[in-house]
């Protein structure tokens, strides 16, 4: 059975962010992740992790404001300075929160120059933080139209070009289903690159066991393939978060 993680950006939103740590622990999670922690002081979240004996699986590079605006800068031509500034800020948060992974968001862009920019920024980040696991995540075009990294084969090609041991794939099963319509086959093709998994039901992005994804089958598949990382619930609960946690028992 995988080690499950609660995404505190989407789960337990019944509570202010800082109270979600305790709510996740009470619901049985030992691991949490936060997409964009930058609205809260890092020290406050570190204290919450310690208080509730929780581990941080992942944080993202900015955008700092998830409510709107940019979706990252790593693939934005001429955005290198902004990317580097934000990445250093992420590393300052990481010093306190000690996330297993940092997800580097590409942003909205397309074309050869964006690809080259993304690769160069990823190489730079890999050298800045050689001991930190960094991830990239293909995101489906319905959720983020125009997002540069929108396909798993594209991600594989970019990871090969970056060729850094600490830059790997964040495999979001929800995006995989939305992009390819065939989660098991996408895992078979790309799962060996995955260091972190996220999951939601599709369509709808609600609980993983609501919709077309066979999450019990997926958990069996990743277990059989020897996946040892976390599986994070990253979805919009239909009702109260605690009422929709059957999927962690599958
Ligand atoms: O899947 C997602 O949406 C997230 O993992 C993310 O990092 C930003 O959108
Ligand atoms: Mg995701």
Output the CATH class name: Alpha Beta
What is the fold-level CATH name, i.e. the topology?
TIM Barrel
Q: Main beta sheet, described?
A: 8 strands, parallel, barrel
Number of helices: 8
Structural class: alpha/beta
Uncertain runs: none
Distinct small molecules:
ligand LCNOYBR7, magnesium ion
Radius of gyration: 17 Å
Number of strands: 8
Strand order of the largest sheet: 1-2-3-4-5-6-7-8
* Percentage of β-strand residues: 15-25%
CATH architecture: Alpha-Beta Barrel
Query: Residue share in helices?
Result: 25-40%
Order of helices and strands: EHEHEHEHEHEHHEHE
Overall number of structural domains: 1
Q: So, the CATH homologous superfamily?
A: Divalent-metal-dependent TIM barrel enzymes
| C-alpha termini separation | 9 Å
What general outline do the C-alpha atoms trace? globular
Mean pLDDT level: 96
Q: What does this entry look like structurally?
A:
Helix 1 runs parallel beside helix 2 and helix 4 packs across helix 5. With 250 residues, this protein is of the alpha/beta class. The chain has a single domain, classed as Divalent-metal-dependent TIM barrel enzymes (TIM Barrel, Alpha-Beta Barrel). It has an 8-stranded parallel barrel with strand order 1-2-3-4-5-6-7-8, surrounded by 5 helices. The structure holds the ligand O=C(O)[C@@H](O)C(=O)CO and magnesium ion. The site of the ligand O=C(O)[C@@H](O)C(=O)CO has 9 residues, from loops. Keywords: Isomerase, Pyruvate. Belongs to the hyi family. It holds the Pfam family AP_endonuc_2. It comes from Profundibacter amoris.
């Amino acid at each position: 059975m995988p080690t499950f993680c609660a995404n505190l950006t989407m789960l337990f939103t019944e509570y202010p962010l800082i109270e979600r740590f305790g709510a996740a622990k009470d619901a049985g999670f030992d691991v949490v992740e936060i997409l964009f922690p930058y609205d809260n002081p890092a020290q406050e979240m570190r204290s919450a992790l310690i208080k509730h004996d929780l581990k941080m699986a992942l944080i993202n590079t900015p955008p700092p404001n998830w409510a709107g605006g940019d979706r990252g800068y790593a693939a934005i031509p001429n955005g290198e300075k902004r990317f580097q500034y934000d990445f250093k800020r992420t590393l300052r948060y990481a010093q306190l929160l000690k996330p297993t992974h940092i997800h580097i968001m590409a942003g909205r862009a397309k074309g050869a120059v964006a690809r080259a920019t993304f690769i160069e920024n990823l190489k730079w980040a890999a050298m800045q933080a050689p001991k930190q696991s960094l991830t990239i995540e293909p995101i489906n075009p319905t959720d983020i139209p125009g997002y540069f990294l929108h396909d798993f084969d594209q991600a594989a090609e970019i990871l090969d070009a970056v060729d850094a041991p600490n830059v790997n794939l964040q495999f979001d099963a929800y995006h995989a289903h939305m992009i390819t319509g065939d989660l098991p086959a996408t895992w078979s093709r790309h799962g060996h690159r995955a260091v972190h998994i996220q999951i939601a039901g599709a369509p709808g992005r609600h609980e993983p066991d609501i919709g077309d994804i066979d999450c019990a089958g997926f958990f069996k598949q990743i277990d059989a393939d020897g996946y040892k990382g976390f599986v994070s619930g990253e979805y919009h609960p239909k009702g109260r978060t605690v009422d929709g946690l059957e999927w962690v028992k599958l």
